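Researcher: Re-running this chain for the archive, since the previous output was lost when a drive failed. Same request as before.
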Amino acid sequence: MPAVRMSEAVNVKCPRPTHAMVLTAGLGTRMKPLTAHTPKPLVPVLGKSLLDRLLDRLEDWGIGTVVLNLHHLAPVLRDHVRGRAKPALLLSDERDALLDTGGGVNRALPMLGDEPFFLLNGDVLWGDGPQSTLSRLWAAFDPDRFDIVLLLHPTAKAHGYDGAGDFSLSPGGLPLRRGEAHVAPYVFAGVSILHPRVFAEVPGGAFSMNLLFDRALAKGRLGAVAHDGSWYHVGTPQAVVETERLLVRGNGFI
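Model: Regenerated C-alpha cells:
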C-alpha cells in the first residue's frame, strides 16, 4: 500500500478501498469510426490507451484489484489486458446482453468485495489538484452518512463535454439535480466511490447507475466532491484530438 502524502486527509471511518471497477463494455457509438475494431477504452491518447491510463492511476493509488466488464469487441479487450500484472484484473462477461452501467456493476458485484469501491467510466481522464482526487473522494466518504460520493467537475471547464451539466451543490455541499434549470454548474465526472449495499434492491437486467444516484439523493445519502484539477471527457474522435492538443500544450492529467 502506498504511503499517503502528509497533505492528504485519511478517512478513519472507511477502510481504504482495495477494489475498483472500470466500465468498459459500451459500444462506443459516438467514437466511431475509431471503435469499429477497437473497444472505446483502448482508444489511444498520446500513444497510451484510455484504459491503461486509468489502470495506472488506480495502481499508483494502491488499488489491488480492478474489475472490467466485457461486451463490445470483448476478445480484443481481453487480449489487451492479458499481459498486465498489476493491478490484478477480473473480467465480468456481458456478452450475452449489454447491462448498462448499473446492471454491469450489479453483475460484477461478487468480484468487488464487501467494502466501498471506486467506479470509473472508461472514457474519462483527469489531473489532480493539490491533493490526489481518489484520496479526496475516499476522505469524503462517511459510511454513516453516505452510500455514494460523486466526483463533480465545473461544467464550464469540462473538456470534451457539451451538455448542460448535471448537478448544483447546496450550501452544505450536497449535490442537487439540475431539474428544470437550463444549465447546472457541475457535471458528473465519471468517478465515484460507493458502498455495495446500494445494490440490495435493484432490477434484474439492464439499468443505469442514475437509478442508484437518485435513490441515494432522495434519502439524503448522496455526497459529492468538487474536482479542483483538470478533467477530460474523451467520448468522440474530435475529443481525442482536442485532449491530445491540450496535453501537448501542457495541461496535463497524470
